[in-house]
Amino acid sequence: MSAENVQIIRGLYDSFAKGDIPAVLGAMDAEIVWNEAENFPYADRNPYIGPQAILMGVFARLGGEWDGFTVEPGELLDAGDQVVVLGRYRATYRANGKGVHAQMAHVWRFKDGKIVQFQQYTDTKQFTDVVAAD
Q1: Strand order in the sheet with 66-79
Q2: What pLDDT shows up at residue 134?
């Protein structure tokens, strides 16, 4: 099943890049537990439980506050019921025009073909510095 999990995650990033948020949310279990990195601007509501909470608390805020927010997955690591993704974020904070180009790691956990848990790791200082410069 792990190779299938990697394919699901690869498709998830492709869908996110195309702006197909319903497809992204559709890969998630109804009770997914989503955690943003500690000290990340959107960690204020951790944990997000369920796709709707993620949509409103993370994705809508990203879309409303950042221009060109992209996730660039690099390496996808198959860890059985988990997939680890190493990559970068790029975005420009709309309020002040300052940009980020930050490393990230995502850990996705699966159960029965659905994503049940997400953990983000990133350069939170870079993000908080850009947001604070507002």
Answers
A1: 48-49, 28-35, 114-122, 99-111, 82-93, 66-79
A2: 67
Of 94, 95, 76, residue with least CA distance to 86: 76
- Residue 1 pLDDT: 52
Check residue 130 and give its pLDDT.
96
What gap in Å lies between CA 65 and CA 95, rounded to an integer? 7
For residue 96, how many other CB atoms are within 10 A of its CB?
12
Q: Which residue, chain included where needed, has tokens 């059985």?
A: 80
The answer to whether residues 33 and 49 touch, using CB atoms and an 8 Å cutoff, is: yes
Ranges in the chain, pLDDT < 50: none
Nearest by Cα to 109 from 22, 56, 59, 34: 34
- The beta strand positions in 61-98, using DSSP E, are 66-79, 82-93
